[in-house]
Write a structure and sequence with these properties.
The protein has two domains: about 220 residues, Citrate Synthase, domain 1, CATH 1.10.580.10; about 100 residues, Cytochrome P450-Terp, domain 2 (Cytochrome p450-Terp, domain 2, Orthogonal Bundle). Helices cover about 55% and strands about 5% of the residues. It has 16 helices and five strands. Strand 2 and strand 3 form a beta hairpin. Helix 4 crosses helix 6 and helix 8 crosses helix 16.
Length: about 375
C-alpha cells in the first residue's frame, strides 16, 4: 500500500483502468456499439445461435460448419449431470436463493470431474464445453426442485435453448419460443470486463481451477448491481400496475433522485444495443400473446426517462426488456439471474481461457489512509 500523500489518483470501481488485452468483445459506450470478434451484436442475434457464439468466443474465431457441428454434438452429449448432484439439488432448502443454489451446485459438480485440477489450455476448453452444456441442466433442476416439481432429464434432440425451456417448464417449447430464448442467451453471452468476468479472471490469474473461477463469477453476478437488475425491473412493473400510472410513477422517482432499475449503465452513454434488439422482440411477443400491459408500461417509462435524463447519457439497458421476454416464456423472476449465468458462462469461460494464455497474477494496490507512527499499547493501558 501507499500513503495517501504518495498516490492520490484513485480509479474508484477500477473505472477506465486497463489491465489486459482481449480480442473477444468491443464496446463503444458513447455510440451504443457492441461487437463480438468485430461482428455487431445485432448480426449475432439475427443470424447466429448461442451454440455458434459460444464456440466463436472459446476459439476466438468464427467456426466452420464442421467445427460447429462437432461442438453442438459435444454440448448435447454432455448435458446430463451426476445422479449425486441431482439428489443434492433436490435436498436444497426450498427457500434458498437460486444463485446460492447454483454456486453450490457448480462447486459440487467439480468434485466429479477428473479434469477439475488440470489447468492446461486443453483441459480448460474441455471443461468449458461441459460447463456450458451442464449449466442449463443444473439451473432447470434447481428451479424444478425449488417449486416442488420432478426434475426433468435433458433431451439430445433439442437445441440448447429449446432443451432448457423443456427441462424448466416440462413441455417442449414452440420453435418461436426456443428461438426467442436463444436470442436472449446470445445477447447476454459476453460483455467485456464486467464485474463477474473480471472476478473469474482474477481467480484464474492465481492458476486456480476452472470450477473455482466460475464459482467466483457466480458470486459476483449474484449481486443486485450486476445480475439482479432484470428481476428488479419486473418488481417495478408490478408496482406501477397499469400503463396509465407509469409516467407519474417514474416522474416521482426522478424528482426524488431515486434509481430506476434497468436504466443507466456504467459503460453505455447511449442506448444499450442489446436493449434495442430485445425491445423489438418484446413488442412482437406482446402483440402475439396479447400481453401488452408490461410492454406498454415499459414504453412509457422509456419515453419519460429519455425525455428527462437522456441528455445526461442515461438510457435503458439490456435488463430493461429482458425480464418481460423471460416472463412471457414462463420463467419466474427469481430465476432471471441464474438465466443470466446460463448465458454468461460462455463469456466467463472464454475470458479465462484467453487471459490464461499470457497469465499474470492480478495484484492491485490501495492508498493507505490509516494512522502512522503508532506503537502497541498493552490492554491495561487502553481506554
Amino acid at each position: 500500500m501507499y500513503p495517501v500523500s504518495n498516490m492520490t489518483n484513485i480509479a474508484k470501481g477500477l473505472e477506465g483502468v486497463l489491465f489486459t488485452e482481449s480480442k473477444l468483445t468491443f464496446i463503444n459506450g458513447s455510440e451504443g456499439i457492441l461487437t463480438h470478434l468485430g461482428i455487431p451484436i445485432q448480426e449475432w442475434a439475427e443470424k447466429s445461435t448461442f451454440e455458434e457464439l459460444s464456440l466463436a468466443l472459446l476459439d476466438g474465431e468464427l467456426p466452420t460448419a464442421e467445427e460447429l457441428a462437432k461442438f453442438d454434438a459435444q454440448l448435447r452429449a454432455n448435458r446430463a449431470i451426476p445422479d449425486k448432484l441431482i439428489e443434492e439439488i433436490a435436498s436444497f432448502p426450498k427457500n434458498a436463493n437460486p444463485m446460492q443454489a447454483l454456486r453450490t451446485a457448480v462447486s459440487y459438480l467439480g468434485l466429479f470431474d477428473p479434469q477439475s485440477e488440470d489447468v492446461s489450455q486443453e483441459a480448460r476448453r474441455e471443461i468449458s464445453i461441459r460447463l456450458i452444456a451442464q449449466f442449463a441442466t443444473i439451473i432447470a433442476a434447481i428451479a424444478r426442485a425449488r417449486e416442488g416439481q420432478e426434475i426433468i432429464a435433458p433431451r439430445a434432440d433439442l437445441t440448447h435453448a429449446g432443451n432448457f425451456l423443456y427441462m424448466l417448464n416440462g413441455k417442449e417449447p414452440s420453435p418461436e419460443q426456443a428461438r426467442l430464448f436463444d436470442i436472449a442467451l446470445i445477447l447476454h453471452a459476453d460483455h467485456g470486463m464486467n464485474a463477474s468476468t473480471f472476478t473469474a479472471i482474477a481467480t484464474s490469474s492465481t492458476i486456480s481451477d476452472m470450477y473455482s473461477c466460475i464459482v467466483s463469477a457466480i458470486g459476483a453476478l449474484k449481486g443486485p448491481l450486476h445480475g439482479g437488475a432484470n428481476e428488479q425491473v419486473m418488481v417495478m412493473l408490478d408496482e406501477v400496475g397499469t400503463p396509465d400510472k407509469a409516467e407519474a410513477y417514474i416522474t416521482k422517482k426522478l424528482d426524488n433522485k431515486e434509481k430506476i432499475m434497468g436504466v443507466g449503465h456504467r459503460v453505455y452513454k447511449y442506448f444499450d444495443p442489446r436493449s434495442r434488439v430485445l425491445r423489438d422482440y418484446a413488442a412482437m411477443v406482446a402483440d402475439k400473446e396479447g400481453k401488452s400491459n408490461y410492454y406498454q408500461i415499459l414504453e412509457t417509462i422509456e419515453k419519460t426517462v429519455v425525455d428527462r435524463i437522456g441528455s445526461k447519457g442515461i438510457y435503458p439497458n439490456v435488463d430493461f426488456y429482458s425480464g418481460t421476454v423471460y416472463s412471457d416464456l414462463g420463467i419466474k423472476k427469481e430465476y432471471f439471474t441464474p438465466i443470466f449465468a446460463l448465458a454468461r458462462i460462455s463469456g466467463w469461460c472464454a475470458s479465462v481461457i484467453e487471459y490464461s494464455k499470457d497469465n499474470r497474477l492480478l495484484r492491485p494496490d490501495a492508498v493507505y489512509t490509516g494512522l502512522t507512527d503508532q506503537h502497541y499499547k498493552d490492554l491495561k493501558d487502553r481506554q
